[in-house]
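User: I'm new to structure prediction. If I give you an amino acid sequence, what do you actually give back? Let's try with this one:
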Amino acid sequence: MLSGVRSLCKGWSVRGMSLSPRQINRWPSNESSEPPTDSPRVLITGAICFPAQYGKENVILSDIRRPPTEVYNMGPFVYADVLDYKNLRELVVNNRITWLNCLRLFVPSTIGAFGPSSPRDPAPDLCIQRPRTIYGVSKVHAELMGEYLHHKYGLDFRCLRYPGVVSAHTKPGGGTTDYAVQIFHDALSTGHHECYLRSNTRLPTMHISDCHRATIEFMQAPESQLSLRTYNIAAMSFTPEEVVEEIRKHLPHLRVTYNPDTIRQTIADSWPVRFDDSNARQDWGWKPAYGLSELVTDMLASIPEKNNNARFLPSGTPTPPGMRSDGGA
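Assistant: Good question. You get back a string of structure tokens that encode the predicted 3D arrangement of the chain. For your 329 residues, that looks like this:
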């Protein structure tokens, strides 16, 4: 899941600042010291999402942890602790972050913000939540704090509740929805997957590309179009059984066994079966691009394991150089 606070600010630039370790000066020396006016300078904390349309040099990624190589190579990266106000002010000034006068704050939420007493099929934007995990409790706290700051001080707070997110470039971390990532790695590396959820456990899921696009479109939507501060977004909802059948259209020999884990199964059974994202679709035009078949095709084509074991490649995929068609070196 996406984590951390992503903040976007509007309308400030500063001349004549001296260089410091927290300043990234990427402007050519023969040009004006002002950043281009047609593209904002964006500070992203958590270093996960990258709004590519603004240009690599205009997006400053930050985190309190050492970034993975792929994140570090995306563009400028700085250390930033969102609890350190002085540090954040220095970053904004020295890196000429724009979108500041009317602060726009985005905090990602999750399917985990719902609990067993919430409506499950579908879960609406506004309902009883009462999650039973500390992860979910912390997300509900963030949602409510944002709502409070919006109503009390006019903060342009925005929040999306993401379903399970599937990406070929992020290893599964053991979360409840991560079987939907691990199964692709297993399908391409060994041809066997042991699922820790029951075969009929239905959960909302989304491709990472839709996740990124939804975030950017939501942040760009005029505030006047928003009827809510926190929205559900949805793309598809499937069971392990259904994703297995879709994968078998490409890899017919995939073998799957089921060994439900009590803790993760209990969590999954307390979460929504489907998200109602009708408000996101109506207010700011949200529409997913990936369904189950598109997700499966993309994952099988993109996961690195496809280069390690040719026996499980989808039919018609060229065998990598130096590897026999039977998987031997």
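You can read the tokens as a compact description of the fold. Here is one thing that stands out. The first helix runs from residue 69 to 72.
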